[in-house]
């Protein structure tokens, strides 16, 4: 029986992927094998000695101490792309809110008073203050062409926009999913100088912090709209507000409000709604539940942010899953220990990612406790699991 600790509410449709005859799931549970969470901040949490994996029902993992988990041999799974459509639709909504001045117009209208004749007169007088423009023919810049960025770029094309994209790490598979009409920028600065709207779909790391700053705002078109549905910190709020005040920036639509942006004309603050749809929550929970189930039962790894992808079909025999530091001769030492115990290897797959390596082995018999202890004692081995 595997024990799963939930640190946030997780979609029932996801939890149902973990059969009750093999899994005990609760928000308070001792000695968990796995943790499922969404936005709960784990950095100050004591890590249970029993913990084998973590599943984040979403894409970002800033709330999880990933480096610490790597040092303990604990993979952290996420759900890339599961909320992509939800975020894409909100980005499109953000562009429309800004282009048509909908927030200001709605606020103006809801404050009107008087009989219908008076309201009609005030509406006709006031509407000219909220005239906007159409998206067709405007240029959209998309920085980051992963699952979300590709959908946003393709949506822009479908609405008649010109689209410029930038992502130095785009994969061949990702490029195939991108409209052929999306133009390639040579750099972030090249993209920013050419667009009327810019949206970001990148993680927050040192290289992406304050991608929009005072210097880059100078090279952008007058009247540009900036959209941030990625992470707080990618846009320098102070510099952007200053640019709004000078008229350089028409609007700033952000899913990450702050006291600095709250109540500022030209800033549309949303309460982190990017992935807040029932469909996205279901998709994320289902994906990550399937991943931790496959890891716990079969040792397979898919969509881990800190471990390599390792998927090996089960064969006859007993499966071993070994996590270790990515240093020379680990596989040799592991196989030698098994040979010393008279255990034959049926199948083996080894992969590495950064400082971590991971090996799956199917062997002809179950190793004794003495053999498992010998494997665990190898310098650099982080953990050994016997999966049966």
Structural account:
- The protein has 388 residues and is of the alpha/beta class.
- It has three domains: 1-82 and 275-306, NAD(P)-binding Rossmann-like Domain (Rossmann fold, 3-Layer(aba) Sandwich); 84-97 and 133-269, NAD(P)-binding Rossmann-like Domain (Rossmann fold), CATH 3.40.50.720; 308-388, ACT domain (Alpha-Beta Plaits), CATH 3.30.70.
- It has 13 helices and 16 strands.
- α2 (66-72) links the parallel β4 (53-56) and β5 (76-77).
- The protein is elongated, with a radius of gyration of 26 Å.
- It starts with a strand and ends with a strand.
- The model has no long low-confidence stretch (mean pLDDT 95).
